[in-house]
Design goal:
It is a single chain. Helices cover 25% and strands 28% of the residues. By secondary structure, the chain is α+β, with helices and mostly antiparallel strands. It is globular, with a radius of gyration of 25 Å. About 6% of the residues have low confidence.
């Protein structure tokens, strides 16, 4: 009798342990919070209207080839500060660009020179336009961890 009770307790313990481990694993898989990237944009000139477009790039295509962006978010301009949220990317290096798309053509509209933008732009990591044009990827680059900790950009107008 005592042996039967011990075997039953041992089986019950193993079954309970197995069920508990399975529930823990499933809860971690099904309910784990996804990592997000929050991009805070400041310096928006609301009176210019239009849309704010935020683009996320890996090295390829930055900053000119918008069609190569990993993700794009567009919102109507609604305030001097706006926030955009993206699911985190698996890329180790990212760069962000913000365009105040005043004419809603999804492109950077240039001034009379055909070189300089007529609309506001901003880049991650404090990178900015220079006499040579837009910054390269290395200037705007953030690590994945830095991006997950939050991205801050300021729109600069010509």
């Amino acid at each position: 009798m005592q042996t039967t009770v011990r075997k039953s307790l041992a089986r019950g313990f193993n079954l309970r342990t197995l069920i508990s481990a399975a529930m823990l694993l499933l809860s971690n898989l099904g309910f784990a919070q996804e990592e997000k990237i929050t991009v805070d944009i400041s310096g928006i000139n609301v009176e210019r209207g239009g849309n704010l477009v935020v683009l996320v790039f890996s090295r390829e295509g930055f900053p000119i080839k918008h069609e190569k962006a990993l993700a794009t978010r567009t919102q109507a301009v609604s305030g001097e500060r706006m926030t955009f949220t993206f699911d985190a990317f698996l890329h180790d290096e990212l760069a962000f660009k913000v365009l105040h798309d005043e004419d809603s053509n999804h492109k950077v509209t240039k001034n009379w020179t055909g070189i300089w933008p007529r609309e506001g732009l901003g880049f991650s990591n404090g990178a900015a336009m220079s006499t040579g044009g837009p910054p390269d990827f290395n200037a705007a680059q953030l690590s994945r961890g830095e991006a997950i900790n939050g991205v801050k950009m300021r729109v600069i107008y010509p």
